[in-house]
Amino acid sequence: MIGRIFTVGGLTLLSRLTGFARDVVLAAVIGAGPVADAFFVALRLPNHFRAIFAEGAFNAAFVPAYARVRQQHGPDHAKLFGDRVFTLLFASQVILLVAALVFTPTLIRLLAPGFREDPGRFSLAVELTRITFPYLLLVSLVTLYGGILNALSRFAAAAAAPVLLNLSMMATLAVAAFFPTPGHAAAWGVLLAGMLEVLLVGGDALRNDVMAVLRWPKWDEDVRRFFKALVPATIGSAGVQIALFADTIIASFLSAGALSALYYADRLNQLPIGVIGIAVGTVLLPEMASRIATGDEEGARRAQARAIELTLVLSIPCVVAFLLIPDLIMRALFMRGAFTAADAEAAGRTLAAYAFGLLPFVLIRSVTATFLARGDTATPVKAALTAVGLNVLFKILLMKPLAQAGLALATSIGAWLNLVLVAWLAARAGHLAIDARLRHSSMRLAAAGGMLALVLWLAQNSVAQLWPATAAMHDVSALAALAALGAVVYAGTLVCLMGKEWFAARRL
């Protein structure tokens, strides 16, 4: 399982690194002004719906269902089940796409009501959204094919697909002069990426003889059971997206650049969430589902505990860095071209607010996997919807004093509540076992994180003075030096506290 996690994590890291390169190009070409705000709204709309109907809810219900059908009835029956779900998914996404294209102005009024005061931003957001929204249909197909492949423990194609989005957008931004605005170039890059992702993941499904095709759906027991799990999962995903919708709605009333600061900070925050949290959860879910289907409950709990341990090992340094040196990170990564020092400072404050909730962000996939692997999508929804209510409340309370950083902080508060509730419900049901090894490891990891924080706090000013403030690569050099120092301190502390035997025994 560790090997598969590192396969997914490695490809996700490649995706995030190319995503970083994409964001550097975006920052330099588009900056953080009105065109950037319009494009980010156009990008968020299909992404919100994707998270509700595709990756979030669909994967939670489909992967365990497909694994169970294949385990119990064989590959032919699983193929039939996949075809029927594919047909229903495709039909629903076509209907949604047509409705979205017709009612795009209404969607923009709902998602970014503050744009109505700026006709230029509003009309540009409408135009760009009509270019990006078909991406939802394409990525929904990618999600289904990826879910089938994941259930077969084939993770590479689906994990690599987002790389195409980054490369495609960079390619179109490179020729932005041939488009009406840089926002148009980026939007067309999104649509092109969807086509390429379908070819990549669909091609892998075809090679493995699990390519889903249109087939007249039949409301049999397997399909009914799938939709019984899908409906609460969709409600839960929709609840989470309400909080993100609230970010966009509220930020549209803030000064120009607030949406962009949220975007750049969230992109950095999503790096460990994707490379660590989502990668671990992606591998853990079919692993637990397969073990539970064969009655190996103890093996499923042990796999979950080790996954949580690995998540903590990899994510703690990110939490420390994002809390202590967020401004330096933003300046080093994005401050060039149209992206100014003021933009970096605003995005840095927002990143620190997101970092407060990074641990629950990365752990939630591993904790909810215990319910999803059993076909229970309803229980995590209860926790998610409760957390969303608190999240939105804090957004309203914090938006005025903290601007977009308040929105990020509210998201973090909601994430903590979500994780605590899910963990409590799982422990009460006997599905979550924090064994002695995990308890001891957690305390030692917390100590290693504290040592890393102390060293970074003491060293950051001294390291910054090693290069003249006017040096072209001053911030980049300082960040690289602190990263190298932090890696040595964290790894060394772990070896001292955990022992070499702990690293040698990293098998699930």
Brief digest:
This protein has helices at 2-29, 34-73, 75-102, 104-111, 119-132, 135-151, 156-174, 182-207, 221-251, 258-293, 297-324, 326-334, 341-355, 358-372, 378-402, 404-428, 436-464, 474-498, 500-504. By secondary structure, the protein is mainly α.
Keyphrases for this structure?
508 residues, mainly alpha, 19 helices
What is this structure's SSE topology?
Blueprint (H helix, E strand, L loop, with lengths): L1 H28 L4 H40 L1 H28 L1 H8 L7 H14 L2 H17 L4 H19 L7 H26 L13 H31 L6 H36 L3 H28 L1 H9 L6 H15 L2 H15 L5 H25 L1 H25 L7 H29 L9 H25 L1 H5 L4
Could you describe the 3D structure shown?
This protein is an all-alpha fold and 508 residues long. The protein has a domain at 34-227. It has 19 helices and no strands. It is globular, with a radius of gyration of 22 Å.
Shape: globular
Q: pLDDT average, as an integer? A: 83
Sheet-strand content, in percent, reads under 5%
Measure the end-to-end span.
6 Å
Indicate the multimeric state: single chain
Q: Could you describe the largest sheet, including whether it forms a barrel? A: none
Uncertain regions: pLDDT < 50 for 5+ in a row? none
- Indicate the radius of gyration in whole angstroms: 22 Å
Q: Report the count of strand segments.
A: 0
Helix-strand string? HHHHHHHHHHHHHHHHHHH
The residue fraction in helices comes out at over 70%
**Count of DSSP-assigned helices:** 19
| Structure class | mainly alpha
